Amino acid sequence: MENEVFLSKEDKIMIIDKKCDIYNVLGKISLYLHIFKQNDRNTNNLLPAIVFFHGGGWFSGNPSQFFPHCEYFAKRGMIAFSAEYRVKSKHGTTPIESLIDGKSVICWIRNNSSNLRVDPNKLVAAGGSAGGHIALCTALIEGYEPKPSDCPMGSKPNALVLFNPVVDTVTDPKITNLIDGDPKKISPIHHIRRGLPPMIIFHGTNDRIIPFEDVAYFTKKVQELDNRCELIPFERKGHAFFNFGMYKNKPYEETIRETDKFLFTLGYLKSELII
Asked: Which of 1, 17, 233, 246 has a Cα-to-Cα distance from 218 of 20 to 30 A?
């Protein structure tokens, strides 16, 4: 894969173990988590982890969207996950159920952290578009997780990596109409407070689905409360610009670089990436 251009010669030959596991069963619905990790490690040390939530407007989408990202960060020494969650086209659900599943994923990873070799205190939530909204809500929105006895370590991630995320579910009628009840209850911009996890956001300035101005305003309000929030604009790029295979992979490669640097500053990656 082209993303191997960022890796050392040793990393390029590293074999990645990929498997699926069920993180929740809801009646006849089984929800899967795709897991990527280096399979030649003999250490029992706990490793930082990152979980990706795909886009698709809470209507559709596929975890494979973030498989290239998972492979990259697995080769960098993390445990990487790409999550399936309930969507309208397949399960007849709303963004509320998608958020509930996002919280359940975080809880499942932490509850199984010993077997997975995951450090429960170094867990990153990531996602694009609607998946970015899910990742963001796991950190900002209270409630919606399994009962406390099922989630003793909590459902809030320790850091966030967001690709053109939905930050406001109130102002756009197309989004508001998808939500049962008050749309503010799952609107990230209405739940900003101090003490949020550090986050990095990638967004195209020509995004016609989620306006760049909305995300810039969100970033400003988060920073005003002394939270770490980095917004990296991509000039003249539209929605979903970051996906592997788009624009000859240049935005994908740049977002990978910047995410790598961000995670290094947090101490989640042991060595600084040299490109």
From this structure: 246
Given a contact cutoff of 8 angstroms between Cβ atoms, the answer to whether 126 and 48 are in contact is no
φ, ψ at 114 (rounded to 5°): -65, -45
Backbone angles phi, psi at 124, to 5 degrees: -100, 135
Q: How far is residue 151's CA from residue 154's CA, in Å, rounded to a whole number?
A: 5
3-state class (DSSP) for residue 127 = strand
Dist CA 9 CA 230 (whole Å): 31
- Determine how many CB atoms are found less than 10 A away from the CB of residue 177: 8
Q: Are 125 and 69 in contact (CB under 8 A)?
A: no
Virtual torsion, Cα 116, 50, 166, 25, nearest 10 deg? -10
pLDDT in tens, 187-236: 999 999 999 999 999 999 999 999 999 999 999 999 999 999 999 999 99
Identity of the residue numbered 154? G
Other C-beta atoms lying within 10 Å of the C-beta of residue 122: 20
pLDDT tens track for 87-122: 999 999 999 999 999 999 999 999 999 999 999 999
Classify 2-265 by CATH class.
Answer: alpha beta
Q: Domain residue spans in the chain?
A: 2-265
- Rounded-to-integer distance, Cα 56 and Cα 65, Å: 10
Give the SS3 label for residue 119: strand
Six token digits for residue 203: 């967004």
Closest CA to 28 of 91, 99, 102, 108: 91
